[in-house]
Amino acid sequence: PSSLPGDPAAGAAIKATDRAHVFHPWAAQGRIDPLAVAGAEGSYFWDHDGNRYLDFSSGLVFTNIGYQHPKVVAAIQEQAGRLATFAPGFAVEARAEAARLIAERTPGDLDKIFFTNGGAEAVENAVRLARLHTGRTKVLSAYRSYHGATTTAIHLTGDPRRWPSDQGAAGVVHFWAPYLYRSPFHATSEEQECERALAHLEDTIVFEGPGTIAAIVLETVPGTAGIMVPPPGYLPGVRALCDRYGIVLVLDEVMAGFGRTGRWFAAEHFDVVPDLLTFAKGVNSGYVPLGGVAISAEIAAGFEDRPYPGGLTYSGHPLACAAAVATITAMAEEGVVEHAARIGADVIGPGLRELAARHPSVGEVRGLGMFWALELVRDRDTREPLVPYNAAGEAAAPMAAFAAACRKAGLWPFVNMNRTHVVPPCTITEEEAKEGLAALDAALSVADTYTTGG
Ligand code: PLP
């Protein structure tokens, strides 16, 4: 580790300036101790103190192509030298080309791309498009979901982290989506879960009044809330309900899109084409902020003669779009999506199941591609979570100990409530994946000590 480029004194100075002046998101400012990052490459990053970490979190699940991909870095540099910025109302080569490459990969006729600066803003605009298209206002979204932290997006988010002051937003109605391990419908099979979830959604639509509902917003595979891959029939069933009641189907692929599930878009696994699809993160692996909404031909046609009321100063920024062109091109040339599917199916999935067989703290393994969750429990029979929802302080200690053990073993984990998500870059090599599994093995031994048997 001492050969890593870093400097403990520089690290300490960066940290001191950070603590003096940076107000961090989602954090109690006095309780955090952010790591001073010195550099990153591929699947790894390192700090100024000689510690290197295999990143099983892909940042916030966005570095699908890994850190410092030379082609993406070069494309940003080249674009900066040529045309570093330009206002959204003009035809700019990088923007046009990014839209073309995205439209080529989105399912069905989602061929018009509205660019944003990130995921939440994409969700805001998808809801606005749906409301304008239908003339209706209500939006349905699922509990156990995450759609972003701006006003509409946080109201749609069905997660116990919603702000304590959140009184609920007029027009947003939550429903339960499939999650067999903790079934809201007390189902005992995937088929039953699927059938009951669809019946519950239809009841919700009918009792809310179909004529008042603009959109159903769903993550194709819910990510932050726990990577609950839906049963095969669920999304086709939701599509059919949307068609029956004239409701716009918005699939949020901010996290699941661009290779994460082993396909360009997760909707492909279920043969479903939404009316609007939101994306961000993997579109350019977050090298420059970018997101967007892919819009169906029918919805786009409604804005041929009336203006769309939305857009920000930096929408479709040339640097971000150049990064997207380079990312998508490199992913295609290097077969990154197929690689993610293969490593997920052949190495990570089987490796996690093998860990689950040996560690009593693992209640369930689920996922696909580079998108996996381990649900940690105190007791496999009762499925009592290793820490309660929204645990803080002492109550959160078992997960904190697990995360610390991961870091000690050189692995940077994604930890949320009683889960760890295994979401490495889609470019991770087989050897790196195995190294990460070995680190998880060591950390799960720590989690095991908190089980009823441990
Ligand atoms: N939608 C989904 C499914 C997400 O996972 C996220 C972020 O994690 C968002 C929206 C919000 O994206 P952003 O943080 O870029 O605003």
UniProtKB/TrEMBL annotation:
One of its GO terms (molecular function) is pyridoxal phosphate binding. The keyword Transferase applies. It comes from the Bacteria. InterPro entries: Aminotrans_3 (IPR005814), Aminotrans_3_PPA_site (IPR049704), PyrdxlP-dep_Trfase (IPR015424), PyrdxlP-dep_Trfase_major (IPR015421), PyrdxlP-dep_Trfase_small (IPR015422). Gene3D superfamilies: Aspartate Aminotransferase, domain 1, Type I PLP-dependent aspartate aminotransferase-like (Major domain). SUPFAM superfamilies: PLP-dependent transferases. Keywords: Aminotransferase, Pyridoxal phosphate, Transferase. GO terms for cellular component: cytosol. The keyword Transferase applies. It holds the Pfam family Aminotran_3. This is Aspartate aminotransferase family protein. Belongs to the class-III pyridoxal-phosphate-dependent aminotransferase family.
